[in-house]
Amino acid sequence: MKVEVLRLFHRKERDKRVTTHCGLVGRAFGASGMYIYGDRDESVASSIRKVNETWGGSFFVEFVESWKDVIRRAKERGSIVVNLTMYGIPLPEKLGELKSAGRDILVIIGSEKVPIEVYRMSDYNISIGTQPHSEVAALAIFLDRIFDGSEFYREFAGARLRIVPQEKGKKVIQLKSEDLR
Ligand code: SAM
Prior knowledge:
This protein has a single domain, classed as Alpha/beta knot (3-Layer(aba) Sandwich), CATH 3.40.1280.10. It is built from six helices and eight strands. It has helices spanning 12-28, 42-55, 67-76, 91-100, 116-121, 135-146, and strands at residues 3-10, 33-38, 60-64, 80-90, 105-109, 124-127, 161-163, 172-174. Helix 1 packs parallel to helix 2 (42-55) and helix 1 (12-28) runs parallel beside helix 6 (135-146). The chain is globular, with a radius of gyration of 17 Å. The mean pLDDT is 95.
């Protein structure tokens, strides 16, 4: 099952760090890439690109002109569209359905107010608790549950560096060129 993220209404100045963190979390927790609708902001794409170069994987970042087209195209490909919102149905009540469908997922996260049309076009409106918090946290928990905690041991193809977990201190190994696949 492949999961892609649609980040709505990115504002260049206000959301730079948060949108970058959405990408970092998406990448680390198993999503394939992130579409961004809003201000075009090369700094977000280049931050994620640098992380891919060092830590591996091929997480994509793509700026889009129309969020509706991203949703429509996802549906045409047979993906399930999930909008993360505190007003939705709690994830545990729909998780089994989402996983057993065995279909790819487009998961939507907002920044400012998300228009009602997004709720209508989505197949599921899902909450991660019914309190307002953050798109970064909502995305992390959604991906953690969908991929059964795979972020703990996920490996990234082509990584130059790999961390060896330590009780204390930091151990990072430099991978040899034959490992760069
Ligand atoms: N007030 C905005 C609205 O009405 O949509 C929410 C803004 S919130 C800072 C940004 C995003 O975080 C939301 O669009 C949603 O994707 C996510 N989010 C925040 N709290 C959430 C929750 N409890 N459950 C699911 N997603 C949440």
